[in-house]
Amino acid sequence: MDGVCVLNWRYGSIEMRRIFEVETMVKRFIEVEKALLYGLAKAGLAPEHCYKVIDSCGQVSPEEVYAKERELGHDIAALAYILGERCGECGRYVHLGATSYDIVDTAWALAIRDAMSVALKRLRGVIERLAEMAQRYADTLMVGRTHGQHALPITLGFKFANYVYEFARSYERLCECIKRVVRGKISGAVGTMAAWGDKGLLVERYALEFLGLEPHAISTQVAPRDGFAELVADLAILASQLDRFALEVRELSRTEIGEMFEGVKRVGSSTMPHKRNPVTAERISGLAKIMRSLVTAALENIPLMHERDLTNSSSERILIPHAFLVIDQMLIDMEKLLQVLQVDEEAMRRNLELTRGSIMAEAVMVKMVEKGVPRHVAHRRLQELTASMNPGETFLERLLRDEEISKMFTREELEQVLDYRRYLGQYKELIGRAIEYARSVLGRGCFQTDVVV
């Protein structure tokens, strides 16, 4: 267990952690400096071969950079000094005309591109798995609940299909966000490209082509922070959707409901041997709180003084890696949860009968309206009937002993009206439409570059 931060050893995959390790970030800084040299060379402002020299003289360790930073008080300046001293004649062109955030923001774009590739791959798997479950349980009857109360019958597949749709919307939302956030910033101090004269757009073009990035149309000394805020907010929306599913599992695994549970052999409690706790779902919900809290910091980074200040820098060193590590762990847990999730169809049937048929009152109301009763009158009458059922009495029995209802319907008619399967609406079409929407979103892909999700 290395480090103070729990994300260093407990949460997030090795794959995601490596993206934000200090060694990786320094390598990205050097890669951006190399791209800048390429841009300078193509614009005629540096010798053609200099960008290649970085491959040999650019082997700089994080320890060296941050030792130099302690002397200079600036990490990117420290890197530029080291490269300037080590790269011979080409060293004079390192970082020429650039500002530190040309390097930092462009490196962030590369890191975010890599991190989004990991996150979206996991999200795609979650969506595909849920789509399979929606189809498998398309006809599995269960209670639909609103306000925590029994409402109308639905199917488990219909419930899952709603999540397919919501997660596909997050996939689509993140893809849209990438277009605005995964962009390079090569424009020098205050963003005017002044140091490169009339060659600034050429420097930017070739440097960013080298990295496979599109440029921001315009920037100050830093890339616009609304993009980072959008990114973190979109990740928080995804986290909240994952939380919603986790809460569903937690609620339905209550002892008195028992319709779903995590089928994992584990110690449920350190003292109560019988416990079967939904701990994976609970961890998803717990981490969602952290993810949502990060949105405030991201929004606070939008208002910077004039063409920039440094208030965003320190928070983003924490904010961006943590946002991705948290969402990574949540998606890993969601994958696990879907793998171990057990469905108790008998419990679903048992719970469906708890109201003894009264959840079909709306269906009766609709039929009463068809027979000429005003809707509000039918609603009031059925409210009275459901409230006056005797202990153990079924709703069918209560309806039949009502003089007005018994004259309006035969027993056979009421039995048909009260059949749960006759009151599921167009659930199959809606499930199909949700899955088709998700397939369309996933089929469109995401990145504008050659990075494949």
Task: Kindly list the characteristics that best describe this protein.
453 residues, mainly alpha, Fumarase C, Chain A, domain 2, 2 domains, two-stranded antiparallel ribbon, 18 helices, 6 strands, elongated, disordered C terminus
Could you explain the architecture of this structure?
This protein has 453 residues and is mainly alpha-helical. It has two domains: 6-350 and 432-444, Fumarase C, Chain A, domain 2, CATH 1.20.200.10; 358-417. Helix content is 62%, strand content 5%. The protein has helices at residues 14-20, 22-42, 50-57, 62-72, 75-86, 100-136, 156-181, 200-211, 226-252, 279-300, 311-340, 345-352, 361-370, 375-387, 395-400, 403-408, 411-417, 427-444; strands at residues 141-146, 149-155, 183-184, 214-215, 260-262, 341-343. The strands form three sheets. A two-stranded antiparallel sheet has the order 1-2. A two-stranded parallel sheet has the order 3-4. Helix 8 links the parallel strand 3 (183-184) and strand 4. Helix 2 runs antiparallel to helix 3 (50-57), helix 6 packs antiparallel against helix 7 and helix 9 (226-252) runs antiparallel to helix 10. The chain is elongated, with a radius of gyration of 30 Å.
